[in-house]
Structure prediction request, 403 residues.
Amino acid sequence: MKPWVRFFLPVWFLLTAAFAGSMPSPAPGIPAAIPATVPAATVMRPPPPGVTAAEAVSQLTGIAISPLLGGGAVGAWRYYHAAPTARSGLPWFAQPWFWMPALALVALCFAKDLLGPMIPKVLKKPIDVVELFENKLSGLVATGAIIPLLAAVVQAFDSEGTAPAALGLAAISPSAAGGGMLAVFGVIAYAAVWVVAHTTQVLILLSPFNTLDLALKALRTAVLASVVATAFANPYAGAAWAGLVILTAAFFSGWAFRLLVFGHVFAWDLVSLRHGRFVPAGADYPAFLARKCAGLARRSFGRVSRDLTGRLVFRYRPWLVLPEKSLPLPVGRYEVGQGLLYPSLRVAGLLDKGDWAWFPPRFRGHEAELSRALRLDAVRPVGLRAAWGWLRDAFRGTVMPSA
Prediction:
């Protein structure tokens, strides 16, 4: 079982039990402090802490799936359902200066995707790159929106304490133990869901078909709509469904994180034309693993270099921050594959499926320096560049017949 799943599964069941234990009784009585002349139907009761927590889980999941749409929608909902005198005290994401521009930008992106088949690729792909970085920025900004949600949950638990009592944890201070657990769970759950949802933007950037772009956006919107619909139908069912979405995201978080890093590095190198300013230097060079090897997944980010014995090794840090590890590459002859957008490290002599690592697009045009620095055999055109070279030589009449 994945480590993420081992962490989230017990926490999800714990919170589910907390919500069940804090559900209101079927026939609540009228508090003694309310005068007998006031009808019971007119008394405004605060929602039970289980409802507050359940709604917070659904809102957190929705914001993580689409930070701009989720944050803007939650903010607009809170603004319109708050009393006019209380609107100035709402969180920042519930203020019109945030949610109105956010929803307007979402509408522009939706129009772009809807008109995608009619927009030429040469114009749409730069817009997709801009949207990729916008999604990263909005995800970082929307992180602040989950803090008020978690604070409301901790406050509700601290004021009533019914959920910890239902679990037999009445002796534990909710503000200390329960509040800290909820805060950590909320931040990690938000990060896991956002990473997986953000991969749709990376896949859209890499996709050659406009119809596939629209399908990916529709899939993400459908998941977001299911979270909203179940939360409206029943807050506890909404929290349970949001918990399943979080568990699924935790299972795919490793794959999604590698794809996120891959898409970010490639998109930034391409949009900034970094290859024109980049100068290869040093003894190790950033690269992505092109195939699964010794348990290390494809698209893992690291650096390629030679060790003291002269063998090629791939050095990497799990999750980019953990202690560094090294993976020796198989002994053999290697060369630099000169691709149309980026070079690769490949086994010499193989025409297909010989890649072991992909270098970022900043190395485009620097294949010779890369080959000399890593002491490789040669530089060979591959992919579309090789096909173009073959066609050019064919028209020139310089193509030699193959053996």
